[in-house]
Hints:
By secondary structure, the chain is of the alpha+beta class. It has helices at 25-34, 83-94, 108-117, 167-170, 195-206, 232-238, 260-269, 304-310, and strands spanning 14-21, 43-47, 56-66, 71-77, 97-104, 126-133, 139-147, 158-164, 182-191, 210-214, 217-221, 226-230, 249-257, 275-278, 281-285, 293-297.
Amino acid sequence: MATRRQLPGSGETFLDHLGHFVPDMEAAHRALARLGFVQTPYTVHQTTPGPGAASVPGGTANRCVMLHEGYIEVLCVVDRDHPTGARTQRQLERYTGVHIVAMTDPDALARRDRLEAAGFETQDPVNLRRAVPLANGGEGMAAFTVCRTPADAMAEGRVQVLTQLTEELVWQPRWMNHENGIVALRDVVILPEDLDEAADRYARFTEASPKRIAEDMIRLELARGGVVLTTPAGAARLFPGATVPPVPGVVGYGLLSDTLSATRAFFEGRGFPVRDTGPGLACLTLPASLGGAWLIADDEQAFPWNRRAAG
């Protein structure tokens, strides 16, 4: 397929990746393999306290599913005593599923200043690192600058803005083509406690304008992807049959396929029930080892929030 642009340009915000918190990485790894995904190697996160400082373990580890646009992260706790590991464990104890909503900006440090001007308290930037094997042998170090807010500022999950510093290490071609035909990440569906309050808060955080799609659904469109805010009842309509997590939380997200009919046949052939939920749209509830649910389409306009916006 044609090469897609991974990173935003000046003034743009992309939905970069979503992170599932899982209690058993091996079970999650097996589930993703059955779902037809190539995965990056298991890697323990590292952080660098400051310029020139040695990297230290970051309390969590991951595998990733790299797409032609965006990616899916699966993350587990390796050190419950580490502050990040402890926070991750607390979130995991609420439910298995999506807890990270990561947007990317060309300059996370400048974005941090704008977030503070918009009324958010921010934490010190986090310099994340993870070792990445190279296709021809050897190893590189993927680098990210992450801007976070305190846990209570965005109660729905670990909602953050980052800058990708090593695109070529993160999106390696050998990891981006999957048997199931999934090619791109799209909107994330979030369950806040108060829809109107959250619309204002996410508007300030994303620098996007909220648009009411239905009485119980609001969308904020990013330069790529978007954020959909809804209620548990709205989530149940979007993802029929899926387990709706406790509020506040994240219920699922949209994915683009090269060809929906082929993707659906692949999943059903592997024993994963797929539901038709609208013209050109299918819903898949993920295994309990991963948590969450997907809406899958091969045309952006098939997603319910886009159909309603167009109408």
